[in-house]
Amino acid sequence: MTDTLLERLEASRLTFEVIDYAYDDGRTTDIGLHAASSLGQSQDSVAKTLVAEIDKKTPICLVLPVHRKLDMERVAQLGAGRKARLINAEKLTKMTGFLPGGTSPLGLFDHMPVIIDKALQPLATLHVNGGRRGRVVKIAAADLQAFTGATFADITLAEPD
C-alpha cells in the first residue's frame, strides 16, 4: 500500500487493518483464490479488483468475491455502454500504477467509478487488495463503499447449483 493511500485511510477515521501474506510471485492465475487460502479466509469474504473498459474508452473498477466471475453484459449496462472488456496487464499498470494482483479500489476511486458486487454488501468485514501483491486491507463493506464512493450492484454471473 502506498504511503499516500495509507495516510488517506487513516485520515478517514474508518476502522481497517492492513494484513500482509506470502504472495506466490510465480502465480499468474487464481491470485484471489490464493489470497483467500493464504489468509485462511472464506472465498466469500476476500475480494478481487478488476478494471474493465466500457466501449473501449471508459474505465471502471469492479470489486467482487474472488471465486465469482463477472457478468460482462451487466457491467456494460451499468457503464451505459454496449460492450465491456477487461483491460490487459500492461494497460492496467499504465492506467492505474498497480500490478495485476495488486490492484486496489482504495486507490482508484479518484480515477474511475467503483462498483462493488452486491454479494459483498452484507459483510461485516471483507478483504480487498491493499495496493501491492501480498497485502490486503480488512474493512467493512459499508466503509469501503463510503471511502470509494462506490455503488453496490449485481455484477457477477449466477453461481452454479
Level of helix content? Answer: 25-40%
Give the distance, in angstroms, between the N- and C-terminal Cα atoms.
Answer: 37 Å
Task: Tell me the number of helical segments per DSSP (H or I, 4 or more residues long).
Answer: 5
Cross-sheet strand order for the largest sheet = 4-2-3-5-8
* Elements, N to C (H/E): HEHEEHEHEEEHE
Write down how many β-strands occur, each being a DSSP E stretch of 2 or more residues: 8
Mean pLDDT: 91
State the CATH topology: YbaK protein
Question: Would you identify the CATH H-level superfamily?
Answer: YbaK/aminoacyl-tRNA synthetase-associated domain
Rg over alpha carbons: 14 Å
Return the domain count: 1
Second rung of CATH, namely the architecture: Alpha-Beta Complex
Portion of residues in beta strands equals: 15-25%
Shape: globular
Structural category: alpha/beta
Q: What can be said about the biggest beta sheet?
A: 5 strands, mixed
Which blocks of ≥5 consecutive residues have pLDDT under 50? Answer: none
Q: Give the C-level CATH assignment.
A: Alpha Beta
